[in-house]
Amino acid sequence: MTERVLILGAGYAGSVVANVLAREFRNRIAKEELEIIILDRNDTNINQGGFTFIPFELYTPEDITRPRKKLISPRVKSFYGRNGEITAVDLHNKEVTVKSDKKYSYDYLVIAMGCRADIDAVPGLADDLNTFYTSIEDAFKVRDLVKNINGGRIVVSVASMPVPCPGAPVKFTFMLESYLRNFRKNRDDVQLTLAWPMEPIGPPEFNKLVTGQLKEKNIEVIRTFQLASVDAAKKELTSKNGDTINYDLLITVPPHKAPQVLIDSGLADDKGWLSADKATLQYRGSAGNFDDVYVLGDLGPADILKTGIGAHYQAIAVSQNLINDIRGNRIKTPYEGETGCPIVTELESPSTQGRGYIATWKYGVPPEPFTTTKMGWFLYRMYYHIHWDISVKGLF
Ligand SMILES: Cc1cc2nc3c(=O)[nH]c(=O)nc-3n(C[C@H](O)[C@H](O)[C@H](O)COP(=O)(O)OP(=O)(O)OC[C@H]3O[C@@H](n4cnc5c(N)ncnc54)[C@H](O)[C@@H]3O)c2cc1C
């Protein structure tokens, strides 16, 4: 009988798992003892990390997208569009339904469908929504806005946590400051404010670096500002404890939550995320405990940082656990919380060297003291090209 691994979502994490399993089990797949199926609603993979750079024209849509068929091993059976768009997930009956009404059963299930912006969670936000967080098109709209900034108060507001890559809004703010100072040459005409929903910005050493840089660059930071509503007519933000901020231009990172289909399937917790064992990543949520169901990437527990770096390490751990499950050796390979947050504090310009750093940490091991460097900038810029041929293919 053919065993089946069913992977929901062919984004970063799902693609890595599919590729690692396809390499490991090429003989079993050829003998039809094992089948790997991956589903996604569309056939194009987007590296969302590139959204932060589009407003400054540092990557093009071609740089940050690839057809999934170039990324996923041909040993994997891929279904996109109506046969890949998931409409219901039933863990008790081990059955997944897609838009065409086709149903897929499985022996092992990997849920890696990412998360989505929840604009309606903030009253009034839709009336003045400028964000680089949601799509290439929206990032280009932000590009058009920043190109035309001539003065006034710009507020970058992170509505609430968790969001994917919580460092990205900080990175964006530093890049915007550098862009106005070095390219537009109008930095002195602009008041730049970062409204942040928590007290610290990342772990202690990350917070220290960022806090120093915000001060040095004269960027105002308003902490613990959890966005409650936006009044587009008055150009005013109100926080959950009633504080207000006025703006001329608002750039927002909206609240996020797991895909609605997973919430509707009864798999999410009351905060809107999928619970899992933080080490094995096996599903431990409102639908029960399921050892044959793995949860990884952005839709996972609220207290696991949502980053591409984290999704990658989770995918490597889950792949190894699936290899162990299928071989029946009962070994568990834990995810140890490996994650990271790339930061940029300066753009490369005729008068400045780009500066960046990729801070990494794991459960119980916070980042070491660090500073941004020219080499960090180059490595981070290069990573966007390496991503497709090394990381997504699961070769590292
Ligand atoms: C602006 C921004 C900047 C970022 N910068 C960085 C960075 O610098 N470094 C970093 O490490 N991380 C960064 N990230 C985070 C990183 O992109 C995510 O953590 C990573 O993509 C998560 O991978 P995933 O596989 O969980 O989800 P995704 O890569 O989002 O994949 C989810 C897949 O599921 C599919 N899907 C969803 N719903 C359905 C459905 N109903 N049916 C079928 N398919 C479905 C989607 O189409 C998608 O292909 C950034 C994110 C953003 C938004």
TrEMBL record:
> What molecular function does GO assign, one term?
oxidoreductase activity
- Top-rank taxon of the source lineage equals Archaea
Q: Which InterPro entries does the entry mention?
A: FAD/NAD-bd_sf, FAD/NAD-binding_dom, SQRD
UniProt name for this protein: Pyridine nucleotide-disulfide oxidoreductase
Lineage at the top is:
Archaea, Methanobacteriati, Methanobacteriota, Stenosarchaea group, Methanomicrobia
Q: Which PANTHER family match?
A: FAD-DEPENDENT PYRIDINE NUCLEOTIDE-DISULPHIDE OXIDOREDUCTASE (PTHR43755:SF1), PTHR43755
Q: Which residues form the signal peptide?
A: none
A Pfam family per the record: Pyr_redox_2
Q: Which residues form the FAD/NAD(P)-binding domain?
A: 4-300
